[in-house]
Amino acid sequence: MLNKDHILNRFISYITIDTESDPNSNTTPSTEKQWDLANKLYEELKTIGMSDVTIDNNAYIMATLPSNVGHEVPTIGFISHFDTSPDYSGANVKPQIIENYDGSDIVLNEVENIILSPDYFDDLLLYKGQTLITTDGTTLLGADDKAGICEIVSAIEYLIQHPEIKHGTIKVGFTPDEEIGRGAHKFDVDKFGADWAYTMDGSQVGELEYENFNAAGAKVKFNGKIVHPGSAKGKMINSMYYATEFINTLPRLETPEHTEGYQGFFHLYAMNGKVEETNLQYIIRDHDFDKFEARKALMIKVANDMNEKYGKTIIEIEITDQYFNMKEKIEPVMHIVDIAEEAMKTLNIQPIIKPIRGGTDGSQLSYMGLPCPNIFAGGHNFHGRYEYVPVESILSATKVICKIVELTQERYK
Predict the structure, then answer these.
(1) Is 254 a catalytic residue?
(2) Does residue 83 carry a catalytic annotation?
(3) What is the CB-side half-sphere exposure of residue 311 using CA atoms within 13 A?
(4) Which of 17, 240, 340, 381 is least surrounded by Cβ atoms within 10 Å, i.e. has the fewest?
């Protein structure tokens, strides 16, 4: 039986290490502090008894649990990332433990009157009677994706301690910089050596996903000209007004707060400006590839039209593809999804098969030759102060990993 306190303490030891990534850095990992957790995980995997534990110059960690059966079984992997989102601070995380949650408001921070309420976040009511881990309202929690790491390490540790559970060769991989779209960029698929893998990077218990957004990032620069406002007529060019026009020309209701399911969006997530120069940063998302391409084309058209309208190079735009929908790479090997679904059902977990409104390392890895659907890690409200995870969800995901490896070897007897 899994030890709840042991796993809880492991998770807390991870989230109290700051691993925020930095999209403006050109190094891998993008922040030096990611090494703090990477080195800890490297040592921990050796301590629990894994073989071939390695960490490379870019902080990618890999390890092996050898097969304990005589017949040939495909090698499967489990992957999570150890960086946290730059959208919100991951420094000085102060977790709070809510035992036997009763369904009422949770005061995260009394001084600042920060409340985690089921009136706003109704998913909380799914976890009445359970143990919740929350923030103190001043940072994110880091369950994305340190819950996934905790589940993988805990599952492997349990399998090592219980050799009566039969399995083939299992690979483990931990990556930096997933939150800035680079988690798989330097992942050595050949070295990893798995036939397929699962990322433990989803949210609600039961999530099982093999579709994700096609994704791109856009940087839009607006050029202005500063002169004294007292003599500005006909001379000043205020870049912020042009930026405002650009924002308002894009479809206002095609943004994250107005879309769901398979609906794509334009997301303006950062802006800074002065008269002389304004910069906008967008992410562009759509499950449908043709619609994805149309979104990128629209942004370029708006920029070109404005430059033509004002007779100047007011706008410079740069769009970079980030990852693509893994669906076309998973559908030919749907048995790997079927095994995960069967594992959940065997554990009385209702599978929730739906598209990811985001991406994982698995989306890029699938295009690199490693089919890699995504499984729940249990957290909610990622990338902000209202993030939380039930301990029972971490335990459930850990059990799913153990059951997947058991079912896989049974299927190949």
Answers:
(1) no
(2) yes
(3) 0
(4) 240
